[in-house]
Amino acid sequence: MKQIDFYFDFISPYAYLAFHQLPLALQGHDYTVRYKPILFGALLGRFGHLGPAEIPPKRHWTYRQVLWEAHKVGLDLQLPAAHPFNPLPLLRLAVATSSTGMPNRYVVETIFKHVWQGGQLATDPARLDELVRLLTPVQEPGAEDVKNQLRQWGDEAQSLDLFGVPSMVVDGKVFWGFDALPMLAAYLSGDLWFVRPDWDSVVDVPFGLIRKAAQPVVLPNK
Question: 90 vs 95, 135, 163, CA distance in Å?
Answer without folding.
Answer: 9, 11, 20
